[in-house]
Amino acid sequence: MNDLRTQISENLSKLGKQHVDLKIQDLPIKQKIIDDVISTPYLNFDFSKQRIDKHAFEWLLTIPDQLNLRDHFSMLLDGKFDNPSEKRKVSHTLYRSFEEKKGFEQIFSERNKISNFFERVHSRKNIKNLICIGIGGSRLGPELLNEFQARKETINIYFCSSYDLLELKDALERCDQSETIVLASSKSFTTSEILKNLAFVKEWFQNTDGIDYLDQLFGVSSDAEAMNDLGIKKENQFIVLESLGGRYSLWSSISLPAFINSDYKAYQSFLEGAHYADKYVMENEWKDNISMIMALLSVWNTSALGINNHGIFTYNYRMRSFTTYVAQLSMESNGKSINSDSIPSPFSTSPLIWGGYGIDCQHSTFQWMMQGKIHTSCDFIGLNNTNEQLKDSYHMLLSQVLAMTLGENNKKEPHKSVRGNNPCSVIQLHSLDLKTLGFLIALYEHKVFFEGLILGLNSFDQWGVQLGKKLASSSKENSEFLSKYFSSELLPKS
Questions:
Q1: Using 50, 70 and 90 to split pLDDT, how confident is the model at 170?
Q2: Which range of residues forms the domain containing residue 350?
Q3: Which of 450, 76, 462, 458 is nearest to 300 (CA)?
């Protein structure tokens, strides 16, 4: 299989050389706008502004079957796909399935606990604050979901994970112990940032008479024993499977904070959108499959065109954290050069994922994109419906896509020229509801999955992340460790 990937990589390089001088504006734009739009009930996907011709694109579409990607995807949906380096299966798609799978019954029992949690909290009329302690996937997903929902907030939500505790201290200053509950989320409860924040919250509660801290403390983990050791009561514990990766965990009880001001139906709606995406990707041909086309275009842009950064720009304020979420999903999954069998990938692997809220980026990073020397591939995401208040935002999105792709040659004043030719896709949302968001996130998850398989990587481990944690632990345990590598002036003050 690695020989096949090497061959595919070599063909990509050859085709890429043929596209060096290809200009997006030279392609038959009017025709391609019609031909290159894929429609679904939740969104449309337009890839007519990519720097690729019909011949190369048709060749790209042969790659999935060469690598048997349909079979791999079927295994993913059934909970049978392996994460070999961590010796576990991959289960995130089962968390949004409505068909109970043998061996994964716990997922359905936890859903009942989630529903009961909302009822318990809402019955406690005095609860006004929720402190959420989590990092990485335990924070980014819930924070995105919370920002996305437009509703009246009866409970203030504070996400905290800072190592220096300043974030947590600022939150606690706004809270009263009698009105505050704490939800700590950690796969193992060994992450130092989480334990440090949790210890500080415990101290904050213990300084108040008449309040049992443990009544206010809830936990989400795959390690029940670790939660027991922290004193978290069994009725306040939520268990996630070991097979659920952190950056895929927002489908589970990890996302409790995001729905505490809504209800279980909102959570279920989010799952339904993602489940629809699972069926959509499984059932559609590759040429009509948004996740696969996004994956193939990513491989094309990086390995054929040498564009090693990808901007994601959202044009709705409620989606302002979406890029940060996808950045972790993509780069933690495929930011690798070697697989679990010690075989190097013959491709360029994950590009740098960056971007943000488009309206803000226009006044910061877009100048670099328009007139700088480095090309960027882009996804532009916005809402297109009849809402008059949102029309201007979507109009601005389309205008920026034209500037990025077509550019403008100003011969009289060359310093005003914009070179264009940045390959762009447009994701046109039909509405801003939880089903749509679930569908969109799942599409990106599957894009990352397919991309990882093409590149020959294990998308479900993150050993690079673990090294930083390991070195941090070594430096704490051994005071001489850091002194070998840094001047005494740079060492932590005692």
A1: very high
A2: 2-85+269-465
A3: 450
